[in-house]
Design goal:
It holds the Pfam family Aminotran_4. By secondary structure, the chain is an alpha+beta fold. The chain is built from seven helices and 15 strands. It folds into two domains: 116 residues, D-amino Acid Aminotransferase, Chain A, domain 1; 157 residues, D-amino Acid Aminotransferase, Chain A, domain 2 (Alpha-Beta Barrel). 27% of the residues lie in helices and 27% in strands. Strands 7, 8, 9, 10, 11, 12, 13, 14 and 15 form a nine-stranded mixed sheet that branches. The radius of gyration is 20 Å and the shape is globular.
Length: 290
């Protein structure tokens, strides 16, 4: 069965889906996107993702393409038409179609909305088989990384460099200060040499990760301390444990950084505990209505 996409009010076979060549997302990267994990028919942290979508749209002065209630219906209909109960949903909102000009269109232009979904492998159950390695790379992105824009060329280049070195992610750092920001497409955490769980505080230099926020909330509820404080490359290299979070990585142990082992090079007790906590977060709760 061909995958079905939602494109500007129509559900169409994905091979037939298209947008106008003067869509500002294509011409300028003038748009916002979100990626949401669907587990057992339930969109994980859906409200966090929709809150972030609305915030990003406000930051670039772009209205929502429809009400949140209507968008929820579209997300569920895309999953239903594709018969997906565990997958990854992608939605993108751009400023729409207008004559090519860097400034915003002078005439009212409706935002463009595209939604797709794809099946993914089942949620990981064995944390020891879930570990991976990363590289480090200078953070060459723009000054508003808190906005989830479709402008991702620096991220793509960093991810490609990681792949070419046999790693799954590039951990970015400020070349002026040596302080770690985040992964090219993930939030990056350490358990420092003193046993403290740390992740960078929110600011314009990093994306406010939804999985990051959900895990912090779970840790607070469990009475587990976490420090929202930046750390340097040197602190990272002395860390006992490290991991990344995202809608696709969940809680993913990092066992090597630039080829050197993190701690003893095995999944540590803290990350093992956090993996279990987040697995319960994903698998718990009531299913959303179809």
């Amino acid at each position: 069965m061909s995958r079905i996409a939602y494109v500007n009010g129509r559900y169409v076979p994905q091979p037939e889906a298209s947008v106008n060549i003067e869509d500002r997302g294509y011409q300028f990267g003038d748009g916002i996107y979100e990626v949401v994990h669907l587990y057992d028919g339930r969109y994980i942290d859906e409200d966090l993702h929709l809150d972030r979508l609305e915030r990003s749209l406000r930051e670039i002065r772009l209205p929502m393409p429809m009400s949140r209630a209507a968008l929820r219906l579209v997300l569920r209909e895309v999953a239903r038409r594709n018969r997906v109960t565990e997958g990854l949903l992608y939605m993108q909102v751009t400023r729409g179609v207008a004559r090519r000009d860097h400034a915003f269109p002078t005439q009212p232009t409706p935002p463009a909305l595209v939604v797709t979904i794809k099946r993914i492998a089942p949620y990981p159950t064995d944390v020891d088989r879930w570990g991976a390695s990363v590289i480090t790379a200078p953070d060459l992105r723009w000054a508003r990384c808190d906005i989830k824009t479709v402008n991702l060329l620096p991220n793509c280049l960093a991810r490609q460099a990681a792949r070419e070195q046999g790693a799954i992610e590039a951990v970015l750092f400020d070349p002026q200060t040596g302080m770690v920001t985040e992964g090219a497409a993930t939030s990056f955490w350490i358990v420092d040499e003193h046993g403290v769980i740390r992740v960078r505080h929110l600011d314009d230099a990093i994306l406010p990760g939804c999985t990051r926020a959900a895990l912090i909330a779970e840790l607070q509820q469990a009475g587990i301390a976490v420090e929202l404080r930046e750390f340097s490359l040197d602190e990272m290299k002395r860390a006992r444990e490290a991991f990344i979070t995202s809608a696709t990585s969940f809680v993913k142990p990092i066992l090597k950084i630039d080829g050197a082992p993190v701690g003893d090079g095995k999944v540590g007790p803290v990350v093992r505990q956090l993996f279990d906590i987040f697995a319960r977060h994903v698998k718990g709760g009531m299913k959303n209505a179809a």
